């Protein structure tokens, strides 16, 4: 993989800049943390060299100064809102986040229930958290938020909220997802700190868009593609230009809310510390790009990948076609098409040749391998084994798995477990490969080559099951699928 991002420089530069921002506000900073703290695979794809766990590693470097506050909207608890990427509810994700932070040696100071209106499920959840030993605070809805500034910045507004007790100079406010009230939590704390005579500041950590890259830079366009379902639009920050005569990129929601936010700062503290929404950010990613062309090419591939994903979500009935049309416009801005992702054509051509599902993967040297469906193997399984043989320099005619073992497994699935489709999933194929590797040297070489799949591009000519998609994701393969099912049936069993 070509490297376009200096991760070591990023860790040092980012942590130093956050320390400087803490000092700017006299030693107390509330940092709204947007995006993914753990496993930021989008960033690692568009910025090759960016480690998926870079943000948490950076926070660990500040562990003596930082504590975490997790915000969750009480209404999301009530309606069992689910994180689409993980398939778990927001309330369960809070517990996951607590465990994840704690296991990394970071202090989780408390959980705040935002927009709390005595919802029965929120009260029950509060008791559950308290029983687990977590401190829980309540923040209440404020009529007219965020526009009714006289009410918001008063004892009947932020003043009604619980004051969150914190002990560290840096308070990172994060959440399971958007709409959880991170910014409002930070502003409420500024109000209460000011009432107590404590100087404190607010800043925002967002990796994308990258403020010091051009508006139409592929990395910033890839962010728009990733958030196509949220209607986020990158735009020039007019406040930043007016203040400094310098161009900076931000997104529409932050630009639109800045005048209100500025007025809230002035109401709380007398003056606003910021002249633009870009000023509020602490993102140093743009300064750590070491090869712009590598990152640009990676971002173009990400836009196409997001386009394929949007088509599949529309085909599955999980989303409207609006994101599809939006990403098509972004592809025009980036001057790219699906033909710029070679594995797509390779998989589809193989599909037409064989009359059944096919898959393709591009090797590090540019070679494209394919896999087709047979009576023993599905296309994804065939592709995986072919790719491992190639990466491990195993002759093409070597059979890594015994047909007898595959047939025995298929018989078990069909005759005893009631499955209609005898083809094994990728995880099952890998288990057989691992067992075979105990006594077979070629199988062991193939198994040892699994880490080499990370970062490779692959495409399936049909929508895959959740299991097969999940295995590719765990292996770090950048998978896309054609927006069609293997059959024309109305019911598609995606789990198995």
Report on the structure:
The strands form four sheets. The chain has a six-stranded parallel beta sheet, with helices on both faces. Strands 12-11-13-14 form a four-stranded mixed beta sheet, sandwiched between helices. The longest helix is centred in the middle third of the chain and has 25 residues, at 292-316. It starts with 6 loop residues before the first helix and ends in a 15-residue tail after the last strand. The protein folds into two domains: 7-214 and 235-288, dip2346 fold like (Roll), CATH 3.10.630; 355-496, 3-Layer(aba) Sandwich (Cytidine Deaminase, domain 2), CATH 3.40.140. It is globular and about 75 Å long. It is an alpha/beta fold. The mean pLDDT is 94. Strand 5, helix 6 (120-131) and strand 6 form a beta-alpha-beta unit. Helix 13 runs antiparallel to helix 14. The protein has helices at residues 7-24, 41-46, 54-60, 74-78, 90-103, 120-131, 149-152, 182-195, 218-226, 238-244, 252-269, 277-280, 292-316, 322-334, 342-354, 379-391, 403-416, 426-436, 441-448, 466-474, and strands spanning 29-33, 66-73, 82-83, 88-89, 107-114, 136-138, 170-174, 201-205, 234-236, 249-251, 358-362, 368-372, 457-460, 478-481. Helix content is 45%, strand content 12%.
